Amino acid sequence: MVTAPEKGADANSRVANEFSARRLSAYDHFMTTAPAASAVVTFEEARHLVEHHATGISGAEGGVVDLLSAAGRVLSEKIVADRDFPPFPRATRDGYAVRAADVSEVPARLELIGEIKAGDSSAGLTVQRGQTASIMTGAPLPPGADAVVMVEYTAQSGGTVEIKRTVKLGENFVACGAEAHVGQVLLERGARVDQAAVAIAASVGKSTLQVFRKPRIAVLATGDEIVAVDLTPGPAQIRNSNSYSLAVQIQNAGGEAVLLPVAPDEPVRLRALIEEGLKSDLLLLAGGVSMGKFDLVELVLAELKAEFYFTGALIQPGRPVVFGRCMRGRTGHSSAHPIYFFGLPGNPVSTMVTFELFVRPIILALSGCAPQALIFLKARLKSNVRTKTGLKRFLPAILSGEFENAEVELARWQGSGDIAALAASNCYLVIPPDREQIGAGEWVSVMVR
Ligand code: AMP
Ligand code: MG
Q1: How far apart are CA 234 and CA 298, in angstroms?
Q2: CB 393 within 8 A of CB 444
Q3: Mean pLDDT score, 70-92
Q4: Which helix (H) or strand (E) holds 300?
């Protein structure tokens, strides 16, 4: 059932076996339902596994919304040019429409035959040899003319214009259809509606757009110590923050969060809530995937006949992250469908980082969005960094500087439970698993939050 590649180093399989063994001793009555095997993979393997599964997912139709409500949504229709762009040869400078051959030697004096403003049709005006027409930016180039001389290089006196600079054929106007031809696809199905997409829709006369439905993403925080945000926590209790941070990340990725009640570290109630969560398009669990005796999430999922694609990634924070799927009958569907799930580690920084690294591609796919690669930016390291090798690290950091001078330094933090440090940071510094030390001034990768 585990389809994750087993190609990790010996160390990986040792970690994986150890991981399984701990699970099996967790709760005796669950011994038979533990994941058939565990797979700890590298960051890149984990990411590619998620991307691979995302390619098999499609979005559902969401109906028609008006243009501005479509902002941030994903198009479920193609947007096609309703006419040529530009629809006429469009002047890009204020000046004089000329025949380039007439001004091959300058100064040249041409007869002024008229003026064309933006919005005017050039009907009636034709530029013959030795003639010119005054033209404004955005106006149609008149027949006969094949270039525009900028007004700065001219002098008008009475009915004639002196041209002081030569101009190349085709200069200072855009030919009809040069940007796009009528019928050409300008936006594909699956495009995110951003300001450029809205501009295109408006330009082709679409005041409404057909979009994909926002996927419903269930969020299940787990842990006996976790209490609801409006309760007063006992001395050893913690308020639930993961459900809310995940909800924000889900919204930003284009999904709709469905927050379930917090699940205790007790298999019967946990199972009931997981089953509830599997009625959504995707289930995100937070907590309960580490090595502790009461980390039951994988055991309960295994009992529900889950397939696991990875049960850990060689990253920090977020190493125990789990990805898999369960076959479920979805409300409104007669046949069983695979519902993907992630078991995210419960430490709040780990929860947020693993969402960014792995969950986003599945939500994008469920939203109908075309796949997007994860791209890190580059900045110069401000002060030396020392780490242990073996894990790819995504550590809270502070990006500063301006324009081309981006600099980054690690935030001071107390580990992956430190949300105060996270809130004071604005990005993650990406440290490759083979680097023990990185010197100040080196170019490093940054994942912007
Ligand atoms: P776990 O992954 O369940 O071992 O939890 C790791 C750490 O994260 C523990 O210190 C938990 O108290 C904390 N934690 C787990 N779930 C949440 C949550 N929903 N909100 C805030 N902290 C949490
Ligand atoms: Mg826990």
Answers
A1: 28
A2: no
A3: 98
A4: helix 297-303
41 pairs with which residues across the strands? 313
Cβ pair 144, 126 in contact under 8 A: yes
Structure tokens, 126: 């034709």
Q: How far is CA 226 from the centre of its chain?
A: 31
Q: How far apart are CA 280 and CA 247, in angstroms?
A: 14
Ligand 2: centre distance to CA 407 (Å): 36
Please state, in angstroms and rounded to a whole number, the distance separating the CA atoms of residues 142 and 116: 8
Q: Is residue 142 part of a domain?
A: yes
- 155 and 244 share one domain: no
For residues 178-211, one letter each, b for 16 or more C-beta atoms within 10 angstroms of the residue's C-beta and e for the rest, the string is eebeeeeebbebbbbbeeebbebbeebebeebbb
Decide if 384 is inside a domain.
yes
**Nearest atom, ligand 1, residue 286 CA:** 16
- Mean pLDDT over 369-383 rounds to 96
Overall average pLDDT of the 404-410 stretch: 97
Q: According to DSSP H, which parts of 170-255 are helical? A: 195-203, 242-253
The structure tokens listed for 192 are 């995110």
Q: What is the pLDDT of residue 330?
A: 52
On the question of a cis peptide bond just before residue 86, with omega within 30 degrees of 0, the verdict is: yes
Asked whether 71 and 254 are in contact (CB, 8 A), the reply is: no
Q: Compute CA 251 distance to the chain's CA centroid, rounded to the nearest angstrom.
A: 12
Pocket test of ligand 1: the residue of 347, 350, 422 to mutate, having most ligand atoms within 8 Å of its CB, is 347
- Label residues 5-21 b or e (16+ Cβ within 10 Å = b): eeebeeebbebbeebbe
Domain range for 139 is: 90-174
256 and 352 housed in the same domain: yes
- Give me ligand 1 centre to Cα 349, in Å: 10
67 and 200 co-located in one domain: yes
Ligand 1 in reach of 238 Cβ (< 6 A): yes
Predicted local distance difference test score (pLDDT) of residue 232: 96
pLDDT at residue 37, rounded to an integer: 55
**Could you read off the pLDDT of 105-135 as tens digits, one per residue?**
999 999 999 999 999 987 689 999 999 999 9
Q: pLDDT tens digit string along 141-163?
A: 999 999 999 999 999 999 999 99
pLDDT digits (tens, 9 = 90+) for 7-48: 333 333 433 444 344 433 433 433 334 454 569 999 999 999
- pLDDT score recorded for residue 14: 38
Structure-token pair, residue 152:
């700065």
Mean pLDDT of the chain: 92
